[in-house]
Amino acid sequence: MERKKASDFPQELLDLFDRYVHGDIDRRSFLDGAKRFASGGLTATAIWESLRPNYAWAEQVAKDDARIRTEYATVPSPQGNGGIRGYLVRPAKTGKLPGVLVIHENRGLNPYIEDVARRLGTENLLAFAPDGLTSVGGYPGDNEKAGELFRQVDRSKMVEDFVASARWLKEREDCTGKIGVVGFCFGGGVANALAVRLGADLSAAAPFYGGQAPAEDVPRIKAPLLLHYASLDKRINDGWPAYEEALKANHATYTAHFYENTNHGFHNDTTPRYDEAAAKLAWKRTLEFFNRHLRG
């Protein structure tokens, strides 16, 4: 499939697809809305296909990369769904390392998120990417099915699964006890929520275009925040002014970056919404942020 860019599509169509991805409309409604953008033999279904993820594009670090060791591990989660399975990535060399929890979008532990965990592993970090779909069989290998399964999981219990994952990572013998969290889309919202839930037990949080924590919860945030936003992402950005006001009022340590002319999901290199320049800059900033707050 030819790789397209966000600029190849009308912004109104991208916004419509964003509503579909986040469950505001179903596939049929998206296709109905996309029909008016179909021309020159291009059907609404073909538009839908071109906007969907192509995970063949996501592999920046091979699964068998000699620099890392990977495995799947299951974490007990008595307050959540009983247990949660995830993807654990460790550098090949031994020794205690800081940990980073990687929280997926609203489709579960897909190949893109596993690759993000491997990228962290090559940066000499201990990474764990839990699958919030564990209780319904795990990421099914198909994004449409994953979206359906995601809506079946009790959201509050899923958050408890992520809290359990963070504490498990922090307490591992090969972890220094300092952990951070990076999350994308739904996972960005979870990263903000974990900053609230974990308090001083979390050393750094880097949400990518994530929903903000309620203002009344902000006093519980102790970790520094590095917040990445897409400038065209009105759905998420509308929550920023109130969040920033609460962060300032509570003297929280935070830095927010808005990436010009980018869409929600700009870091995900499997879809046309991917913006290479913004993704690379945001990732560079994230690694610097984790190195500053997790080491030493």
Keywords:
single chain; 296 residues; alpha/beta; Rossmann fold; 2 domains; 8-stranded mixed beta sheet; 10 helices; globular
Structure notes:
The chain has 296 residues and is an alpha/beta fold. It has two domains: 6-52, no CATH class; 61-294, Rossmann fold (3-Layer(aba) Sandwich), CATH 3.40.50.1820. It is 37% helix and 20% strand. It is built from ten helices and eight strands. It has helices at residues 11-21, 27-34, 44-51, 111-121, 143-150, 155-171, 186-198, 234-237, 240-249, 276-294, and strands at residues 68-77, 82-91, 97-103, 126-130, 175-184, 204-208, 225-230, 254-259. The protein has an eight-stranded mixed β-sheet. Helix 2 packs across helix 3 (44-51). The longest helix is centred in the C-terminal third of the chain and has 19 residues, at 276-294. The chain is globular and about 60 Å long. The model has no long low-confidence stretch (mean pLDDT 95).
Put the structure in a nutshell.
The protein has 296 residues and is of the alpha/beta class. It has helices spanning 11-21, 27-34, 44-51, 111-121, 143-150, 155-171, 186-198, 234-237, 240-249, 276-294; strands spanning 68-77, 82-91, 97-103, 126-130, 175-184, 204-208, 225-230, 254-259.
Strand order in the largest sheet: 1-2-4-3-5-6-7-8
Number of helical segments?
A: 10
**Number of structural units classed as domains:** 2
Radius of gyration (Å)? 19 Å
**Share of residues in helices:** 25-40%
Which topology of the largest domain does CATH recognise?
Rossmann fold
Supply the CATH class of the largest domain: Alpha Beta
Please give the alpha-carbon distance between the first and last residues: 45 Å
- Helix and strand element order: HHHEEEHEHHEHEEHHEH
User: What share of the residues does DSSP label as strand, in percent?
Assistant: 15-25%
Say how many strands there are: 8
User: Could you state the CATH homologous superfamily of the largest domain?
Assistant: Alpha/Beta hydrolase fold, catalytic domain
| pLDDT < 50 runs, ≥5 residues | none
Name the structural class.
alpha/beta
Broad shape: globular
The biggest beta sheet is recorded as: 8 strands, mixed
Mean pLDDT: 95
CATH architecture of the largest domain: 3-Layer(aba) Sandwich
